[in-house]
Amino acid sequence: MFGLITLVPPSKPFPLPLSDLATREELHYWLSKILLHTIAQAQPMPIPARPRMPNNLVTFINIILHLHKIGFPAHWLSQFLSDVISDKLHTTAPTYTGGLPVKLSERDRTVKKRKLHLAPWIPDFELILSSAYEMLPIPIFLPTKTSKDDLEIVPPEDIGRYQVKLKQWTFTSKSELPVNNDGNITLLFKSPPSPDITDLAAKVVEKLIWRMRKSRFEKMKREGWFIVPIRSDMKEPAAYGVPATRCKEIVNEA
Could you name the domain of life of the organism this protein comes from (predicted)? Predict the structure, then answer.
């Protein structure tokens, strides 16, 4: 879909010699493209031909770990991941937000190198890497701690599980059916609340549950952040925003 990187080469044991693998520049481009497609998905096809897009950032980290198993040098992968979690990634890889299936012309398309804005996804990487840190086969170069928003590797007891009751699902302008239950919901944390974030007194119909670093969440509550579920495929809100002060930590799980 986004260029050819051999993930399962035929009849050769791992690790492969470096001469059989993509160059460092090709690897950087390919991983950047996979990352962009994961966080900025293409427009879905109409129902019933709509494919599900199951990839998330856990899958992305698993791809990086599998590439190390194949034979890509650990320092290549570590440097790339370090740039991601430090929000310093520069790339020529473009986003693709057109319709599916992805056009073949996208395979090698590039744009002018620019810095990606990855700060909104740092809490996700923080949770994933904290959960698996002791088992990672490659070193992780953590960003220099300059603010409380930077990524930290924390022990399990510093990760909280939270829930919030939603007010009302919305129906996006691109939805074909009066339902909003596709598996493409992303939690958006916004500060300060924008004018388009509406807190309506409507019937409670659902709740959301997620995990994140406790100190990060407490900071969001103090600063008056809002939580908004969005459809990552439609690029539109899936429910009305809820202030972080209404969220509760789930304790004493069975």
Answer: Eukaryota
What DSSP designation does 161 have? E
**If DSSP codes are grouped into helix, strand and coil, which group holds residue 42?**
coil
200 Cβ neighbours under 8 A, 6+ residues apart:
167, 168, 240
Q: Return the number of other C-beta atoms located less than 10 Å from residue 98's C-beta.
A: 11
Residue 237 preceded by cis peptide, ω within 30: no
pLDDT digits (tens, 9 = 90+) for 10-31: 567 889 899 989 999 999 999 9
Residues 6+ away with beta carbon under 8 Å from 221: 244, 245, 247
CB 27: neighbour CB atoms within 10 A?
Answer: 19
d(CA 227, CA 31): 29
| 66-82: pLDDT as tens digits | 999 999 999 999 999 99
**CA 212, CA 18: separation in Å to the nearest integer?**
38
Percent of the chain with pLDDT over 70: 76
Contact 167, 202 (CB under 8 A): yes
Q: pLDDT for 169-213, tens place per residue? A: 655 555 554 444 555 667 777 776 554 443 333 333 477 889 999
